[in-house]
């Protein structure tokens, strides 16, 4: 005897899954977003990402208008990447300038400390990016 799921199209199953995920998020009191739902539909149903995003937007506009497009977590990763690169550049710059000051027999320890701090901040940003990427898989 065929099950009810076999008669449904991938789009209909995806819509059911979207509804289930929104209900689960509301029940568990965890935030969700249209971006996260689009990624889920893309991964589970192999629907192209633009079509998955349109499907989620249509569903959310009709039945769940309170679901935001993005969450802070989804915007945090690009910020961390930019912060890591900027801190790396600043750290290397302070260390390079400190080396020039040291060769000129001038006080340079402050520049070395600042360089180390900025390199440390860059390392922390890179660590947070990797941690976030590994946690999402």
Please, could you describe this protein's structure?
With 137 residues, the chain is mainly α. The protein folds into two domains: 4-63, no CATH class; 72-136. The chain is 77% helix and 0% strand. It is built from five helices and no strands. Helix 1 (10-28) packs across helix 2, helix 2 packs across helix 3 and helix 4 (72-103) packs antiparallel against helix 5. The radius of gyration is 24 Å and the shape is rod-shaped. It starts with 9 loop residues before the first helix and ends with a helix. The model has no long low-confidence stretch (mean pLDDT 84).
Topology:
Blueprint: H1 10-28, H2 34-45, H3 49-63, H4 72-103, H5 109-136
Number of domains: 2
Strand elements, count: 0
* Average pLDDT number: 84
Helix content: over 70%
Tally of helical runs: 5
Shape: rod-shaped
Listing every helix as H and every strand as E from the N terminus to the C terminus, the arrangement reads HHHHH
Largest sheet: none
Secondary structure category: mainly alpha
Question: Which segments are poorly predicted (pLDDT under 50) over 5 or more consecutive residues?
Answer: none
The CA-CA distance between the termini, in Å, is 36 Å
Radius of gyration: 24 Å
Strand content: under 5%
Provide a quick synopsis of the model.
This protein has 137 residues and is mainly alpha-helical. The chain is 77% helix and 0% strand.
């Amino acid at each position: 005897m065929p099950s009810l799921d076999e008669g449904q199209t991938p789009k209909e199953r995806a819509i059911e899954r979207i509804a289930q995920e929104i209900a689960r998020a509301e029940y568990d009191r965890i935030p969700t977003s249209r971006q996260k739902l689009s990624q889920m539909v893309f991964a589970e149903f192999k629907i192209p990402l633009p079509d998955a995003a349109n499907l989620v937007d249509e569903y959310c506009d009709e039945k769940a208008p309170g679901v935001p497009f993005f969450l802070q977590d989804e915007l945090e990763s690009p910020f961390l990447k930019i912060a890591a690169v900027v801190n790396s550049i600043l750290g290397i710059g302070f260390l390079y300038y400190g080396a020039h000051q040291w060769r000129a027999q001038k006080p340079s320890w402050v520049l070395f400390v600042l360089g180390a701090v900025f390199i440390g901040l860059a390392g922390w940003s890179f660590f947070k990016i990797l941690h976030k990427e590994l946690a999402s898989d």
